[in-house]
Specification:
- By secondary structure, this protein is α/β, with parallel strands linked by helices.
- It has 3 domains: about 80 residues, Winged helix-like DNA-binding domain superfamily/Winged helix DNA-binding domain (Arc Repressor Mutant, subunit A), CATH 1.10.10.10; about 90 residues, D-Maltodextrin-Binding Protein, domain 2 (3-Layer(aba) Sandwich), CATH 3.40.190.10; about 100 residues, D-Maltodextrin-Binding Protein, domain 2.
- It contains 9 helices and 14 strands.
- Strand 3, helix 5 and strand 4 form a beta-alpha-beta unit.
- Helix 1 packs across helix 4, helix 2 crosses helix 3 and helix 5 packs across helix 9.
- Belongs to the LysR transcriptional regulatory family.
Length: about 300
């Protein structure tokens, strides 16, 4: 018996809570079902079920393995259907990652629409500013603000953003002049930081990078806190354009030093080669592209 068939047996036993019932459902003998589970347990070197004379139940390892098995079997079914040209509705678990604030502002509304339209899909959202490995974390789709560095990734651009320097009108009304990046040394600075690198802001002048070393008055590892401090008139900060788009549009923050803005960064929707043809992945990527392409701030 191959691994995939054994996984199918395992999933059925877990679903029905009985070796005998699983055997009947799969048109197999009870001993064959027992052998399939024993084979998996040997290969995994762990027990998948607690067995008593009256009932069986999953071990902790079995519960974790069942989640992976369901995803693998669903992916195989979707992949085979796609190759055969059969149109299936997306189903199963979709794992999505995106930067924290971008995920909250842009990706979560897309997930909500996707879940409404496809009731057989569950979504696990991982909002994280650190780049996660798609293979190690079983991520299906990643939205990243950078170009992919791994040739094994399938990516397409859905917009772009860039770093912008902002402050409140109240702060600027009483602050020293601000016409060049060097003038920042005379200002109160608010620095979004993970505290792992020296505080530096990079600007572009005549095609060259100008690095300004900072002495921030306020450093914080949460962008929302830095934005709130800037809105309150405490000082100047520098963030991704999408993070302060609403505040700039409302007039709470003003874009300064625009002529020195850094290069634009692409927003990429990324999946592993081989997974991009799964129906749940194809459909979700389509939703992301369609939604973000309509956003005039990301695609001016």
């Amino acid at each position: 018996m191959d691994r995939i068939q054994a996984m199918t047996v395992f999933a059925e036993v877990a679903k029905l809570g009985s070796f005998v019932s699983a055997a009947e459902q799969l048109s197999m003998s009870a001993p064959a079902v027992t052998r399939a589970i024993a084979m998996l347990e040997t290969q995994l070197n762990t027990r998948l079920f607690h067995r008593t004379t009256r009932r069986i139940r999953l071990t902790e390892a079995g519960q974790q393995y069942l989640s992976d098995v369901k995803r693998i079997l669903a992916d195989i079914a979707q992949s085979e259907a796609a190759i055969a040209g059969v149109q299936l509705l997306p189903k199963g678990t979709l794992r999505v990652t995106a930067p924290v604030l971008f995920g909250e502002l842009y990706v979560t509304p897309i997930i909500v629409d996707f879940l409404r339209d496809f009731p057989e899909v569950n979504v696990h959202g991982y909002m994280n500013d650190n780049v996660v490995d798609l293979i190690d974390t079983n991520i299906d789709v990643a939205i990243r603000i950078s170009k992919p560095k791994d040739s094994g990734l399938y990516a397409s651009s859905v917009g772009h953003v860039q770093k912008v320097t902002v402050a409140s009108p109240d702060y600027l009304a009483h602050a020293p002049k601000l016409t060049t990046p060097e003038d920042l040394k005379q200002h109160t600075l608010l620095y979004p930081s993970d505290f792992t690198e020296p505080p530096v802001w990079n600007f572009k002048r005549n095609g060259k990078t100008v690095a300004i070393r900072l002495q921030p008055r306020f450093e914080c590892n949460q962008n929302r806190s830095t934005i709130r401090a800037a809105k309150a008139g405490l000082g100047i900060t520098r963030l991704m354009s999408y993070q302060v788009a609403d505040a700039i549009e409302s007039g709470e923050l003003v874009n300064v030093l625009e002529e020195y803005n850094d290069i634009k960064l692409p927003i990429q929707v990324i999946s592993l080669e081989g997974r991009q043809n799964l129906e749940k992945v194809k459909k979700f990527v389509h939703y992301v592209k369609n939604a973000l392409a309509k956003d005039t701030y990301l695609n001016p």
